[in-house]
Amino acid sequence: MLHRMWVSAFALTTGFAGAAAAQEADFTAADEIVVTAQLREQRLIEVPMAVTAYSGETLQELGITKYDELALFVPGFEVQEQSANNTGFVIRGITSDSGDATTEPRIAVYQDGVSTSRNRGTYQELFDVERIEVSRGPQATLYGRGALIGAVNVIQNKADLSDPYFEAQLGGGEDGYRRGLVVLNAPLGDAFAIRVGGTLRARDGYVENLAGGEDLGGVDVAAGRIALAFEPNNALRFDLIGNIHNDANSGTAFRSGSFAPVGSDLSPYSPAALNTFGGFEGGAPLGLEREVRSLTLIGNWEISPTLSLTSITGTREFESTEVFDPDGSAYTLIVAAEDAEGTQESQEFRLSWDNGGPVSAFAGVSYFHEEASTRTPTMYDERYALAFAVGELPRGAQVYTPAEFDALVAPNLVAFLLNSQNIYDALNTAHTEYAVTSGETTSYEAFADATWRVTDRFELTAGVRYTQDEKRSGLFAATSSPSLLGNLLAYQFILPAQIDAANDAGDAALAAELTAQRNAVLGGLVPVLFSGDTSALQPYGLFTQPTAAIESEGDFDAWTWRLLGRYEFSDDVAGWVSYARGRRPEVLSLAPANLPGGGAPSNNALPAEQVDSYEVGLRAQNLGGGRLDAEGSLYYYDYTDFQTTQFVGVSLVTVNAGEATAYGFEGALNWTPIDHLNVFTTYAYNHARFESGARSGNSFRLSPDHSLSFGVRATFPISAGEFFVMPTYTWQSKIFFDDDNDRADLQGEPLPGLLDAGVDEFQDSYGLLNLRAGFEHESGHWALEGFINNALDEEYLIDAGNTGDSFTIPTFIRGAPRLVGLQVTARF
What we know:
This protein is mostly beta strands. The strands form seven sheets. The protein has a 22-stranded antiparallel barrel. A five-stranded mixed sheet has the order 3-9-10-7-8. A three-stranded antiparallel sheet has the order 4-5-6.
């Protein structure tokens, strides 16, 4: 029996699941869907959880190859793909997207039961999958650490011992779109089988880069997989699956809302002008290079008719380098990169028992070890940075070229620098600094879950998991040379402000210490003033302060649990109530000081985030003569120790935002009013708000209050095959891109001239219309399909703020415009 790990289904998709593309879908067979949401096989109506599952056939019908496309059809689920290296997963208002090596995920993302939750290694192309499940609500008992508010599990197709199979797809379209897919399954005798597959997907950038180079926002993805199966008898089976995924994408289309390139304007939908300068990172161009590799071994042993053992062994590694222009402008102000890598090993054993009586249960243990590091180099042109800091860098539609800058802006800067041409000439046009964070986690878990069928219609389920973590975080930061501009800013702005604050607080000793520090800075600036000699400067960086290697260690443990009650009102209608506790593990957060003289490095042990969840739901199937399936759930969440970021003084740091609550409703409907016509829709309402601290009353980032999807699939059989038409429409209400909701009182003003006065880091409500139509031959051997994504060419943002927001110059990333394409498929 093939291993199936934590599988669940939602009424929306039951009509699609298992329907061959060459046949009319059997929308009356919902009661035949077998799931294992509670780690044992059950009919969908028996599962007391709000989850969604899509079969591989349904994914193809909807044209889904990416997580953000999947999220459009899952209530309460959002995915923001800023780039393949930075994908944000959102379930019921909670976002998991940090790429820092020390940060823990809030949403567990799995591939065949192995965690892929480390953000920089999460995104992978969705191809040749058996199904995908999205579980909403705390899932600690089933999915373990990091499943604070939900989990996503991708179940790939395994090698089939009985049937040979071949499939190939070839597609193309505008904007250089091209896609290819090949899958081959071959039985090798009675006990062995092999399955190999690969896919390519590419699209040219859709944001013109006026500074030259590739257009921005382009993708170039290649992924491959090999799966081996060994089944010596009916009681024992092993599956070995190896994956490799590569991205070679053009630069992320950050677009400044403050500085417009010559020949363009401030609109985020106009051409950009992004650049690197000074040989940054060996002259690497803007863009992403990433590779993810994994190997998974799944074993299933049916020890007896009542007892089975499952083993899941996984190893993964990723390497990614992304170069980007965080100021989003034509100015050579800042260029940055992120170089991340990570490895992990995991092992789980689970023993399941079910003798057909009123009680069934499972118990298990797991081991997880991860090592990750993130290097974040930045390069600054100190002349442009000085002009920016003191308000001399022109904003709006006027942008000075380097020659114009020297002629028009430089005299003002020289005057600001005590009329010293020596100081101006000594400013570094390619000042480089970087920080390296590292994290290591070893986790041990034990878990158990049991269900007691009290009567024929009422059952109780209880589960518990114990987690013990051993964690270590490290930090190191350095600069290519002391920053002259950093010394100037410390002397003229930062240290005087700190001295005044110390005097106001009556701390004479601290004021004297800061005054001595300021005098030392002046001692290093005097030689620059008279001769341009920078050798005596204080060892300051500009925005990343040099930090000797430091480490933080800690051991943590915790319990999480769930309790559910389920009642069958009839054979086709069942309801449930549940209480569960979710947890995001503790974080040992290390970060260098942001500004020169701005204080010591940040070294915080952030407490575990915790959520208590209360939910009631109802599922109905086969109503109206088997033509209607429906489901709805109401929930309430109470969060404690929610972590976010904000300015504290002159530094952007991770802080404890305290308490938050969320409540909402999710529903889905699948209706077949007549033969050959299916209507499917979802709706989610989520009211997620901070309840304490400076952000009290704010909405969670990336969390719409309302979202919905609606689709119709109509088929038209003819003697030679079948035509189909499927329009789908998805809509969401307004979202904010940061937990501060772009409130002016939370923006901060680190230095004169650095102020984000605009309230524009949000996306108003919008909808996307997609169209698909095609024909499939009656043999099922070939099909032709056309599609139009974003058919109305809707303009919308997928992100705003970004790294530039840390410098009070937020950038904006537009969503993809309309795409028209054609695809042909062959199957044998």
